[in-house]
UniProtKB/TrEMBL annotation:
This is Transcriptional regulatory protein, C terminal. PROSITE patterns: OMPR_PHOB. Residues 1-100 form the OmpR/PhoB-type domain. Residues 1-100 bind DNA. GO terms for molecular function: phosphorelay response regulator activity; transcription cis-regulatory region binding. Keywords: DNA-binding, Phosphoprotein, Two-component regulatory system. It comes from Nocardioides psychrotolerans. One of its GO terms (biological process) is regulation of DNA-templated transcription. One of its GO terms (cellular component) is protein-DNA complex.
Amino acid sequence: MAVLEVQDVRLDPQTRRAWRAGVEVALSRKEFDLVHALISRAGEIVTRDELMREVWNTSFWSSSKTIDVHLGWVRRKLGDDTRRPTLITTIRGRGLRFEVTEPVHGGASV
């Protein structure tokens, strides 16, 4: 399996290691699986049903918050602002997308 690299995030599925801007990020097993499911389809919307199947190996929802909680941990570890994410964005009613390029946010730049 090849190393995946999108924006400044690198993921090595073989060794299950992740880096952001060259700095290794320690991810739990489920966090890694969540990032892998998203980054391997960067630019595409991945539905919550697909994530539950691929990451949690279940077709039923044990809790609707499961994905959100893990996503929060992943965003914190990768330094992705939860209010204005540039890596993983939530597409309301559809799912999540790992952005190929940093999204342009409206309003004044910081």
